[in-house]
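Researcher: Good morning. I'm working through a list of sequences from a screen, and I'd like to move beyond sequence-only analysis. For each chain I'm collecting a predicted structure so we can compare shapes side by side. This is the next one on the list. No need for commentary yet; just the structure.
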Amino acid sequence: MVTNAFPGGTTLARPDRGDAFDPNCPTRVVLDRIGDKWTALVVGALSTGVLRFTELRTAVGGVAPKVLTQTLRALERDGLVIRTVHAQVPPRVDYELTDLGRSLEEPLAMLTDWAEVHVAQILAARERTEAAAAPA
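Model: Good morning. Structure tokens for this chain:
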């Protein structure tokens, strides 16, 4: 039987999958990456095609350049985004999704759609909870 070995000595019987409920499994790192709001927005923006940094920043909206840079570096490191530097003056840098990154488009689009559909209910629930917890 083939097993995956993770930090802390954890092994899995299925080499093709992790176990998100195992505290030592790196699946949790992946969930942290794709659960980040900037990751979801960057993947959504890049689903339209190749974008330059400023185009991406405009498409995402509200993200600081430093945070966008950090997000893009992490996505590149994780194999979700390709960064292409073109040798010209001034230099041009393009970002695009890899095949792995494109495999996230549909699941993240579904989550984004769910959030957009249910935002009013979530905000109303927050208001009710805060009102109930407020001192009389």
